[in-house]
Amino acid sequence: MQSTFKSMRAFMDQPEEIKMKVHVNHNEGLRGYSAEFEQGNYGVDVTDIRNQLTKETTSEAEDEPMDFKQTYHYGRELPKTHKHYNVTLFAPNVYPDTPAQFSEDIKTYWGAMDTLSDTLFEVFAEALNLPRDYFEDKVDEGMDSMNMNYYLPFADRPQNQMGIGAHTDYECFTLLAQDGPTALQIFSPEKQEWVYVPEVRNAIVVNIGDMMARWSNDEFTST
User: Which is the most buried residue in 43, 192, 210, 212, by most CB within 10 A?
Assistant: First the structure.
């Protein structure tokens, strides 16, 4: 994990013109680099827990500015001849020329997270009193993606600007690697307010997404 963080920092520390060589606009699908203010304004939908509690948080989500972060996008690859191939979801990944270790670190980290995801699906199945392999044939060629986010210094941000705006993830779950100051927040339905997720170095936060909430009939709540 630390080797991957090191490679990502080395990439993000490069001049913008170097990073722009692998910008998503130059590649198929959502693969490669995107700069600050190119993603965001997530809004809410009917499944969003914030939409069910207070109009205030709903309006906040709809009015948020674009994200103050830089991102490197990576994802599952499928051959173009595959019956499920979609260029947006399964396009070939791209790698920058520098740092040299980048591609190896990212591939290794992706493989580890893929293995962890398979294990977690087994855990979720058992928690729902389902066969351990229940989810296996439903996610074996999933549209998995990985966003490696670099949050810019807070002192440089515009007023009322967040690193990444309020949202729930649409997929089954998100694995969030922690390395740095406490910053991640979730919306607490009990407190009806945003609360910090404690930062534990080298830990992985499992964040439930909308699909798992729906599949489990809200036994697991999207956060």
Answer: 212
